[in-house]
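Morning run. Coffee first, then this:
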Amino acid sequence: MLVDKPEPTGPYEIYSGKTDWSYAHLIFGDIDDNDTAMAVLDVLKEKDTKASFFLHTDHINDENRPALDRILADGHMVVVG
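And here it is:
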């Protein structure tokens, strides 16, 4: 669920400030938790918002492949480093 707050209040909370833009920049050190990644992707789709996902190469593996496939299929940008 997206909430309007002056700043995020926790490390896993989805934050939305007031803006006319529909783009988000998300930094995931890893996407090992497919449930969390899928929940974020569901919210982005619901809000018709595209995102940039910054992923660390050491954390891309077969276990999180479904989340990575969905990120790409939904038209988001992936930056790998």
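Strands lie at 3-4, 15-16, 23-28, 50-55, 77-80. Good start to the day.
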